[in-house]
Design goal:
Elements (H helix, E strand, L loop, with lengths): L1 E5 L9 H16 L4 E6 L1 H6 L7 E5 L7 H14 L3 E4 L12 E5 L3 H4 L8 H17 L2 E4 L2 H11 L6 E3 L17 H7 L5 E4 L9 H14 L5 E5 L8 H9 L5 E5 L3 H10 L2 E4 L8 H8 L4 E4 L4 H5 L5 E3 L4 H13 L3 H12 L5 H15 L2
Parallel strand pairs: 1-2, 1-4, 2-3, 4-5, 5-6, 6-7, 8-9, 8-11, 9-10, 11-12, 12-13
Helix pairs in contact: 1-15, 8-9, 8-13, 11-14
């Protein structure tokens, strides 16, 4: 078959959908010796990306998501390729594309927590139109968790037999290395004490304000012995994050370090006291697994797909809507000398359940059934 892959988010910050797309392409090149692939990319990754072998070809598709160009220009480029099957790695797809396709739905965040994105009436209408169109017309829908599958069935009334759950994996580059102190990195980031870590974007549903408030109370109660590192691009739309740090007077213990290189993120995982994931909603939740792979204990929300992914007994769970509970679970964690190693050991076992190899095996099976 000649299969297209929407790689317009390839490597964007190398998180979320960008990472999913990159791992999908890498593992298809590794395992699939039969099909041909056309990768549709934005300008920057198009110029940098080297196709892994002769069965892969890249095509420039520099059309932003949520744009008229996506709906009409991208549709024209896709039709020119005359594909046997198209794989949209995100729900953003041209609604007039009528050849066979499958779609991966990572979550329905914009349905439940639109935040400051897609807030206008016409934007909301366009979002729902595109989402309903792509899920209605797709030959198969790949959901990254049973929680996302449930959301699709309940919110969009999609029949269960059209949804295939295929879990994400954890990259082998995480884990297998003992923590090595990085004094130059700590100095650059202003770190002097044991730290808790959060990695990811700044969005309302990520509950960063709640995390900062809980940490401030926790640190006050423990004599300011700890620090909190929050990575992610400083987003002026979400000014509540730095505003909360300033209002609480915790600039010396809460570090908003911005975008961090992959190597440095890896070091921050390895050397963190614990990883904290306070989200209100996740379709999967990859960062806690990456932390587990690095041998870092995780403290996570007890909602949406997070318990499904982290599993029972492998993490400390808290109610993300309860600041006091987040604070208390952080206190419990540092007060129990046996808990940290227990979580490290159980986390390393948990991540064995997830692999990109398994993911691509499932995707290839979906490709076969989608064209029958």
């Amino acid at each position: 078959m000649k299969i297209g892959i929407d790689a317009r988010m390839y490597g964007v910050g190398f998180t979320g959908i960008g990472r999913y797309t990159a791992e999908l392409i890498e593992h298809l090149a590794k395992y699939d010796k039969e099909n041909e692939y056309v990768l549709f990319m934005r300008k920057e990754p198009f110029e940098k990306f080297e196709c892994p072998n002769q069965r892969f070809r890249k095509v420039l598709a520099d059309f932003p998501h949520y744009s008229f160009g996506e709906q009409f220009g991208f549709n024209k480029v896709l039709k020119q390729e005359n594909l046997d099957l198209m794989h949209f790695t995100h729900f953003n797809a041209p609604i007039f594309y009528n050849r066979p396709f499958v779609v991966t739905i990572h979550d329905l965040t914009l349905s439940f927590f639109p935040g400051k994105k897609m807030t206008g009436i016409f934007q909301r209408m366009a979002y729902h139109k595109v989402l309903r169109s792509v899920t209605r017309k797709a030959r198969k829908i790949i959901a990254v968790s049973n929680n996302t599958k449930k959301d699709l069935m309940e919110t969009l009334k999609i029949p269960e037999d059209r949804i295939i759950v295929i879990y994400n994996g954890v990259s082998a580059k995480f884990g297998g290395v003992k923590p090595t102190p990085r004094p130059e990195l700590y100095k650059a980031l202003g770190l002097n004490r044991p730290y808790f870590l959060y990695t990811g974007v700044w969005r309302d549903h990520k509950n960063l304000v709640g995390l900062i408030k809980a940490f401030a109370a926790f640190n006050e109660e423990t004599g300011k012995q700890y620090e909190l590192v929050i990575t992610g691009q400083h987003n002026p739309t979400y000014h509540e994050v730095p505003d909360t740090v300033e209002e609480l007077g915790v600039e010396n213990s809460v570090h908003l370090v911005g975008l961090v290189s992959e190597e440095n993120v890896y070091s921050l995982y390895l050397n963190a006291l614990a990883y904290v994931f306070p989200s209100f909603y996740e379709g999967f939740g990859l960062p806690p697994l990456e932390a587990m792979q690095c041998g870092t204990p995780v403290l996570v929300s007890n909602v949406s797909a997070i318990p499904e992914v982290c599993g029972e007994g492998n993490a400390v769970y808290f109610d993300p809507y309860n600041i006091e509970d987040i604070k208390q679970k952080m206190l419990d964690f540092i007060k129990d000398p046996t808990l940290r190693q227990k979580l490290i050991d159980r986390g390393r076992e948990r991540v064995k359940f997830f692999s990109w190899d398994k993911m691509v095996e499932g995707v290839l099976e979906v490709y076969k059934t989608a064209v029958k």
